Amino acid sequence: MGLLAAVVLVMLTLGLGANLVFLYRDGVERGEAQVLALRDGAREQAAAAVSRIDLLLSGLTEGLALRPEVERWGDAGIHALLVRQRALLPMVRGIIVTNEAGRLTHDSEAAIPANMDLSDRDYVRALRADPQSGLYIGEPVRGRTSGRWFISMSRRFTDQQGAFKGVVTAVVDPVALGTVFSPFLPGAGGELEVLRDDGRVLLHLPDFERFMGAARGHQSFFRDVLAAAPSGSIRVAGSTEESVYRLEGGEAGLFFTWATVPGSPLLVTVSASYDGLLRSWWQVLPYHLGAIACIILVILALVLKVHRQIRHLNGLIVALSNREAALVAARRSSEEANRAKTLFLANMSHELRTPLNAIIGFSDMLANGIHGALADRQQDYARDINLSALHLLDLINDILDVAKIESGGYLLHERPCNLAAIIRAAERMLGPRVREKGLVMDTVCVDGEAWVMADERAMQQVLLNLLSNAVKFTPEGGRITVSLGLNEGGGMVLVVGDTGPGIPAEHLALVLEPFYQVGEVETRSHEGTGLGLPLAKALVEKHEGALRLDSQPGQGTRVSVTLPAARVLPPQRPPVEAKP
């Protein structure tokens, strides 16, 4: 039992552990999929922002090429145009125009622009040197007047002859840009970066101030991983700022993804710590462990309870086995005693019938005066001896029949017999006793003949026993009815009823046992041995039939004998009358 409990606990623990591992891996996969979705969203947002700014700058450069007043410093019309255009994009802090020499000539944020030389800015140098360049995204720098960080996005413009006339620059506010990209920042421990393709950081969330303008291009991670493929994702350990490397084994600290922005020299990276991705898993882990502990305790309690029950059942099984053995021994002893009783009764019956036959014969001779006439008193004594001997012989025959039936030695001698004739013969035999008590006997038989395949002597014995009981227990002036007919199933039914005192319900089953009689010996008013009904029942059952007893005190008794339909025969010719 202990081994079984251990196996159950181990299997349960393994199952729950496997479930935790599944939940862990599922959490990792879901988290990584979420980070990838955020990266794709950030890339699309970057592409849209760059496209809108580039479209704005393209329109301005084409318009300024057609307006000669652009060369006038602080022209009011140009200023108004720049203000209107800047209002179209909330992330753009301002729009400035520098001439071919790099001097600031127009500023959307100041009607009178500052007298400032911007020729050293990277966007001015790059666009002046490359006539074919399109949108140029400059390095993040601090404004010379405001001191705040900004990202420049610029386009060169020319006059109608194609000569370089200056640069139009959109000053992008990192704070506003961070607001645009903040929905794509993973939860706790997540980072988002927008870089140029040379590794210069344009935006880092969170804490953009710390990483603004940082250079990644010299790092091996940038060269070997980010620059090697337009998009991808890896599990890394460490920080994206320093000592970043790909893990070949073990647990990863970060899930890092990147993708280039189509149509621009930008790169978007999104990373998240696995602790952050699995935060919900870590939060439910104690509950899972608690549940595992509770389940294990419950199983231990159940195993202990089952173990106790098994021990109790084992004790019951042993007790029942001992009891069964005792019952088997008692049954064998009872069977042996019953066989001994049956053998004794059979032997005694045979031993008693021999002298009884002699007594019956001699007493009959004396009563009939065969060897000389006797005085009247002597003749009465001889008749009493003869009647008593005949009564004792009937008793011995009943005992012998019961013994034979119980031992299985009673054999039926079956042949077609007419139950109606047997009834008529029994009425003739019992007629004197019926008339002596002033009883009325009614016989109801649907047909004059009722043929069955049976042992005629046994059927006579059954009917005589039933009618004798009815005559014996029915008071003077009472009525006895005998009916014979077929039931719905085709079986033959014989019913003997009387108007006697009836039998209490608690005695109905007992009177069908041998030698049982209702009432104490001292108080019984009728003689008998208690073998009439049991013998009749046994003989009927030998014919595959059934005997049923119905009785209520004060309402008489009704005995029904039913023989199966298989024993019912068609009328026989000539009819055979049963002899009494």
Helical content stands at: 40-55%
End-to-end separation in angstroms reads 76 Å
* Percentage of residues in strands: 15-25%
Helix-strand makeup class: alpha+beta
* Count of alpha and pi helical runs: 12
The number of E-state strands comes to 19
Parts with pLDDT < 50 across at least 5 consecutive residues: 239-251, 520-524
Output the radius of gyration: 62 Å
Shape: rod-shaped
User: What value does the average pLDDT take?
Assistant: 80
Largest sheet entry: 6 strands, antiparallel
Secondary-structure topology with pairs:
Layout lengths: L1 H64 L10 H11 L5 E8 L4 E4 L14 H8 L6 E2 L3 E2 L6 E10 L5 E9 L1 H8 L9 E6 L4 E5 L2 H4 L8 H7 L4 E7 L7 E2 L7 E7 L5 E8 H4 L1 H90 L7 H32 L6 E5 H18 L3 E6 L5 E5 H18 L5 E8 L5 E7 L33 H11 L3 E6 L5 E7 L17
Parallel strand pairs: 14-16
Antiparallel strand pairs: 1-2, 1-6, 3-5, 4-5, 5-6, 7-8, 7-12, 9-10, 9-11, 11-12, 13-15, 16-17, 17-19, 18-19
